[in-house]
Structure formats: C-alpha cells, structure tokens
Amino acid sequence: MQDQEALKPQETLFDTEEMVLNMGPQHPSTHGVLRVLLKLDGETVIDLDCDIGYLHRGVEKIAEHDTYAMITPYWDRLDYVAAVSGDLCYVEGVEKLLQVEVPRRAEYLRVILTELQRIASHLLWLGTHAIDIGAVTVLLYCFREREEILKIFEDFIGARLTAHAFRIGGLWWDVYPEFEKRVRDFLKIFPERIDEYETLLNTNRIWLSRTVGIGILPAEEAINLSLTGPVLRGSGVNYDLRKAQPYSAYSEFDFEVPLGENGDTYDRYLIRMAEMRQSASIVEQALDGLPEGPVMAKVPKVIKPPVGEVYHAIEAPKGELGVYLVSDGTGKPYRMRIRPPAYINLQSLKRMSIGHLVADVVALIGTIDIVLGEVDR
Amino acid sequence: MADESDDKVDKPTTDSTEESKESLKSTGADVPEKAQPLPPEAGSKDPAAEIEAKTKATLPAGEKPKTEAKAEEALPGVEKPSKTPAIEGASEKGEPATPEKVAPTPPKAGAASVKPTPPPRAPAGEKAAGDKAVGEKPAPPKAAPAAGHKPAPPAKKGPVVTVDITGDPLIDKIKQRFGEAITEAVATFGQQIIRVKKESLIELCHYLKDDEETLFDMCTDLTALHWPERAGQEFDVVVMLYSVPKNRRLRIKVALADGEACPSVTSIWEGANWMEREAYDMFGLRFEGHPDLRRILLPPDWPGYPLRKEYPIEYRDNEWTDKHIQYREVDYDTSLIDVKYAERR
What we know:
The complex is a heterodimer of chains A (377) and B (345).
Chain A: H1 2-6, E1 19-23, E2 35-41, E3 44-51, H2 59-63, H3 68-76, H4 83-98, H5 104-133, H6 136-157, E4 166-167, E5 170-171, H7 179-201, H8 205-211, H9 219-224, H10 230-233, H11 241-244, H12 265-288, E6 308-316, E7 319-327, E8 333-339, H13 341-346, H14 348-353, H15 358-368, H16 372-376
Helix pairs in contact in A: 3-4, 4-5, 5-6, 5-12, 5-15, 6-7, 7-12
Chain B: H1 2-10, H2 15-28, H3 30-34, H4 47-58, H5 64-74, H6 108-114, H7 122-132, H8 145-148, E1 162-164, H9 169-178, E2 182-188, E3 191-196, H10 201-210, E4 218-226, E5 235-243, E6 248-256, E7 261-263, H11 272-283, E8 286-288, H12 319-324, H13 334-344
Parallel strand pairs in B: 3-6, 7-8
Antiparallel strand pairs in B: 1-2, 2-3, 4-5, 5-6
Helix pairs in contact in B: 2-4
C-alpha cells in the first residue's frame, strides 16, 4: 500500500506539465475546418478554445448588396447538409416582411421537404458521429438511406446538396408525378432502418461507455448558454419551435417532442433517433393531407418590403435557425443577421469538455452537430 | 378564373414600371444606394423614392394595363390562379402608384399616430399572434398586443408596420419600473421591441431574467445595426430574448455613439459571449465587462470592421492579404503553352 502511494505520478521521477495540443483545422473528426486548442493535463482537458472563421465568406455583408431573391441560394451554403431548412427560414422571413400568404399546398410541400431534410441531416450526423467514436459500419447504413432522400431531392429540385428548394412566395415548381409514391416508398422502409441503426448502437458496450455520462449539461446551464435544438432537448428542456411557435403548417400535424433526462451525449443521440421517427410521421401526415392548388403566391417581381424589421426563426436540424431582416424599403435588405444554431451551440464545447479526456472531445464535437459552413458564415 | 384573379390582383403590382425604376436606379444611383441608410426612425429622404416619383411622372397612366399584361406573362407561376395576392387593397387608391411608393418614409412617431395597421390578413395576424403569445401553454392570452389589441381593419396594405404597444401588461410594468429609461416600446409584425438607455441596460436585463412574470432566461441572439447618418447614435445593439417558461420573445435595442462601449450582458446570459465577440468583430463595438473580447471570425489583425456601412464590399486585396497570402500576378509565356499543346497533338 505504501509503495503504491509512493508511486503517484507527482512523486515519481517524471516531471508533469500542462501541454497545449492543437486539434485541427484539418483533423477529420472536427467536421471541417474547426481548430480546437486544448490545454491538457496528461490526457485530461483543463481548458479549451475554439478557433473558427476559416470558412468565413461574409454572407451578411454580401446580403446587403443583393436583392432579396438573390440571397436565397446563400442560405443553402450555410448549413450545406440541411440546405432546405436554411431556405425555409429565409424565405419565410421575407414573406413575413412582405405579408405574403403562401398557398397551402406549398406549405405542405415545404413541410415534407424540410422534414426529409431533417432526416437526411440527422443521418449524416449519426454516421459521422459514430465514425468519430469508432463505429464505422453505421456510416454506411446511414448513407444508404440518405441517398434515397437526396435522390428524391435531385429529381425534384435538380440538386442534391445545395437545393435552393423554395422561392419567396412558395415553390418554383409543383412536384413531379411520382414524388408522392417515392416518398411513401421511403417511409415504408425507413422505420425498419432506424431499428437497424439502433440495434447496432443502443446497447453496444463500446458506444455506451463512450457516450453515457459524457458532457452532461444541466437544463439551466443549457438555457443560459443559449443552446437550442437537440442539444437543449437532451437536457430535458421542452423547446421546439415547431411546437412552441409554429410556423409554416406545423400546427396541423401531430407529433411529439422527444426529451432527454440526463443531458449527456447518449441522451442527445437518443433524441435525434426519436426525432427521425417523428419526422417520418410528419411527412406521412403531410402526404395524407396534401391539398391541391397552386404552389406560388402572387409576389411582385421586384421585391421591396416596407420599412421595418422582422425576426423569424425555425427549428432547423441543428437548433433555432433565425433570420433578422431590417428593410429600408429598397430592394435590398439594410441588414440581414443570421442566427446560426451551430455557431451558438459550439460555445458549449468548452463547458462540456473540461474534465474529460481528449478522445471525448471528439465525441462532444460530434454531439453538438456542427457544420462549419454555418459556424463561419 | 384566371382572368378574375388577374383583375383583382395585378393592378397594384405594376411590374414593368417597377422594373424600369429598378434599372434607372441601378444606372443612375450608384452612390445613393450605399449612402442611403434611412433608419425608419430618422425618416430621412430617400433617393429611391425620388426616382420612383420621377418615373411615375414620365409614365402616362393610360399605358399601365398593357405593360402589366406583358409583365404578367413573364412572371412565372401566374397561370395558376392564386388565392393569395401579394399586395392587395392598394388598388383602392385608384392611381397607378405603386404601393411601395410611400414605403420608405414613415417617421416612427408619425406612424404611431396615423393608423395602427396590424398585419392585414387574418392568417398573417394569427401567425404573428402565435409568434409572441402562446404555443401550447396557457400563458399570456392578454399579451397579444399588436396583432390582437385592435381587430384588423379590412386589409389595407400600408407602409405602417410599426405601432406603439398599448395595454400590454408586461411592457406597462417595465415602463412603470424603469420610467424614463425606456424611450420607446413598439411592436412590428407582432414582435415587441423596447428601446432602453445604455445606462439601464444591465439593470433591465437582470430584471427581465429574474422577475417571476418575465423570466427571459435565454438570450437568443445579440447583434448590431449601423446607421451612419444618425449622428450621435450610430449603432444599435439588438438583444433578442426568449423566455422558455412563458414562451415569448422580446427585443431590446440600445443606441450607441461611434466609439462608445456597450455594457456586456455576458454576466447575465453566458450564451451572449460569442455573439458579443462577433458584434465586436464585425462592427468594432466594445462590450464593457466581457471576459474575453477578441475577434472571432476574422483574423486578429484584420483591417476594419466589415459590417459597418462604409466598409466596401470589394475589399479582398488589402494590407492583410498582402502580408499573409502574398498574392502575385504570375507572368507566364503563352507561346510555351502552345508549344506543349502542339507537342501533345
């Protein structure tokens, strides 16, 4: 016993000192060009700083020099794995400013596409999150289903990733004839596929030891850190904009908001899995009730909203995605502020990582679900 | 069917006139475009409006229907009869004026006294009401100020979208408590905005976060606006709050002079940290009491603050890129390339 006491690291021959480790910007597990500076004591993180901005394009500045319609494609390139959600946020913001009412068929189609996009985004998240932690198989399964969704998008929109799905006032085209059938085919197989992923992970011993109890965030702290989306709901806070402040046609659908209990990485994983099931259910309901009619409202060709300002937020896959538009009555916004969920959620990485090991930082970056296109804008 | 909707809908749109205006603007008004900040508060004169007026004068009124029809064909999606005209009611004016004509100039004070026009159509009103009032919670049915307190008059689209808040218990309470410090309380599109003096910002935020009735426990967003022509108050810091238990939003604005520091709200909402850093990065605003005020998206030695209005959009080649990227024109011999191609062939 005494011998063991004597062998404590501080008292051995080794000198210990803090070390600064530079992770990224080309590290594969940082999901792009995130650079994380870690201050380590042994393998334990004692401080952390994120260096971001490598992908900064100045979208907010560009927006001040573009007309309202020209800005929409930039929103595809913010969160490029959930481009449709970005479109929806901006387009609805401008519609609010213009006081345009979108045809109901367009609203329903928007819901369908956005929810499919949520599934696709969560699938990509799941695959990469799992591969970060070491489960390579899951990625291949996830991409199989994501591919189906991207094909549906491609045939409708013409693009797989940067969709530019919506226009101010509705949709550019109505959907193609087989659209409904293809979406239904996908919905038929999808719940089973989620079961498959869960079989791979839910009770997987390695998965559990890498996620349970890692990065616990109590509810109050999560709110104080302005977290939104699955990261916030993992801590048990019931805040989903689709329910809290319904936009588009979400008030007409019946779905649940999955909530976590412990606020750890495993809970956040479970929530996203449950959300995919809910999204599939929403898509099904929307298809069942899909109204007939036009898909484009009458919108002036040159969009000049009245003087004023508006904030509009939607529940994007990553959290609350908002747009704050200030109009001076001309054809270009006086200011467009993007409220990026990934950027604001990334703040919590420091809070979650301290006290954990370096390997857990990788899991925690994954659990926040960041896309650097949106973080850096 | 189509005719009917066209009749009803298209009169105010005047697409082609709009277009000509647009082209006029782009050719003639490069400078005003940039130097035209027109804060709604300032109600300054708008070069765009002048140009519009000019175009209107040069365009005989009789010509309108024809050009419209042409524009109609060009506009996609019009073949389908739409039940939701973008702009309605303007045809009541009986003149070919575009509804936007009046848009750029309402001074806020006037706006309040003129005619509180909540969002015109019922659904829009509903949406707006849902925005701030309730989701599924039974919380504040009384607190539906802008959209709710006056029933929407038969849709008349006007430029007035901002109205004073009256009869909202929460805002009244804040006004009572802070008195002079609250200089303005308005609602636009059903969203509540209060303007507070810089000195009282921290006190107000503490109150909003801790008081039982407000409980604004989340700082959703923090950003800034630059109004270069508003002397002495060039910046607005905009803080957007959300209350999870009450499910409502509130926007706070603080006016600042150029170079003046804003009190930091990071001590109240930790999440404001990066938002304030971004505001500093993009506008050069300093936040007093911020624990770690560094640039966040741009390099530490980047020249200037990009989201200020005077910052040019094409500023890619500057001192910083000279120093760090060392971009050089490459001089190459084109004849050499031709030779290579020739060899390949």
